[in-house]
């Protein structure tokens, strides 16, 4: 019996989508992707994602939202190689670190930095809130790094073996890099070294090459570029040319 081909909806530049793609890649699972930004999703997209967020995973008749739920679903369906510690205490810690990444790093890096310099500026043609961006870059993200630094290992990964905690946190720092934030190795040496190890992993490195290629490509043209790069882009799309925001607040 052949392995399923999962259908992923969401942009390669989303840290939440990246987390799912790294999990799929680590587990050797096949997927096809409709690489839309949620801001360009049409009515059919909203039927699948009522919060107008990505990623969405479609597995046959089953539709699954939220990157954390998706990754846990993939773990349950394909338990090896595992991305969740066997020890229940460490597993809880992995889930907490994933939640910290999704919530706090999402708020600081995505809502106040990446969104400001990307979609807000180029999609919605709105003025960038430079004060919000600067506070996130100079105050809030350094505070996050101060919290993360003592938890980082001298070598290897956060909880011993590679886990969802590593993948989730590193996924957000890729977006920080896309808006030219670099972790200061003198101030946060463990975090900087850990990020180097994470970004050297084959799936992160592969996705980074793709992200760097499409980061400056207009959204309507990205699917064509991705196909040229050999990515498994679906023929049909849930995207439109009409730009609209979701129901969740962004700064």
Describe this structure in words.
This protein has helices at 15-26, 43-48, 67-77, 88-117, 119-122, 130-148, 164-178, 189-200, 202-214, 219-228; strands at 5-9, 30-34, 56-59, 62-65. Helices cover 53% and strands 7% of the residues. It has a four-stranded mixed β-sheet with strand order 2-1-3-4, with helices on one face. The termini are far apart. Helix 1 runs parallel beside helix 3 (67-77). The chain contains ten helices and four strands. With 251 residues, it is α+β, with helices and mostly antiparallel strands.
Question: Which key phrases capture this entry?
Answer:
single chain, 251 residues, alpha+beta, 4-stranded mixed sheet, 7% strand
> Rough shape?
globular
Strand % is 5-15%
Order of helices and strands: EHEHEEHHHHHHHH
The total strand number stands at 4
Question: How many strands, what sense, and barrel or not for the largest sheet?
Answer: 4 strands, mixed
Computed over alpha carbons, the radius of gyration is 18 Å
Helix count?
10
List low-pLDDT spans: none
Query: Which structural class fits the helix and strand makeup?
Result: alpha+beta
**End-to-end distance, in Å?**
47 Å
State mean pLDDT (0 to 100 scale): 95
Sequence of strands across the biggest β-sheet: 2-1-3-4
């Amino acid at each position: 019996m052949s392995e399923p081909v999962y259908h992923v909806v969401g942009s390669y530049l989303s840290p939440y989508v990246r987390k799912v793609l790294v999990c799929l890649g680590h587990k050797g699972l096949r997927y096809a992707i409709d690489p839309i930004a949620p801001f360009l999703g049409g009515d059919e997209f909203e039927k699948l994602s009522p919060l107008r967020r990505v990623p969405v995973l479609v597995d046959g008749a089953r539709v699954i939202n939220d990157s954390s739920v998706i990754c846990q679903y993939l773990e349950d369906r394909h338990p090896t190689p595992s991305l969740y510690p066997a020890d229940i205490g460490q597993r809880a810690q992995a889930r907490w670190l994933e939640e910290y990444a999704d919530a706090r790093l999402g708020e600081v890096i995505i809502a106040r930095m990446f969104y400001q310099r990307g979609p807000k500026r180029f999609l919605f043609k709105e003025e960038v809130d430079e004060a919000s961006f600067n506070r996130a870059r100079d105050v809030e993200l350094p505070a996050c790094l101060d919290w993360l630094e003592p938890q980082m290992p001298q070598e290897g990964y956060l909880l011993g073996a590679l886990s969802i905690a590593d993948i989730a946190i590193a996924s957000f720092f890729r977006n920080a890099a896309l808006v030219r934030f670099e972790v200061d190795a003198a101030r946060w040496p463990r975090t900087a070294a850990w990020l180097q190890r994470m970004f050297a992993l084959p799936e992160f490195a592969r996705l980074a090459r793709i992200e760097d290629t499409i980061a400056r490509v207009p959204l309507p043209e990205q699917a064509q570029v991705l196909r040229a790069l050999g990515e498994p882009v679906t023929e049909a799309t849930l995207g439109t040319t009409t730009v609209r925001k979701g129901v969740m607040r962004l700064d």
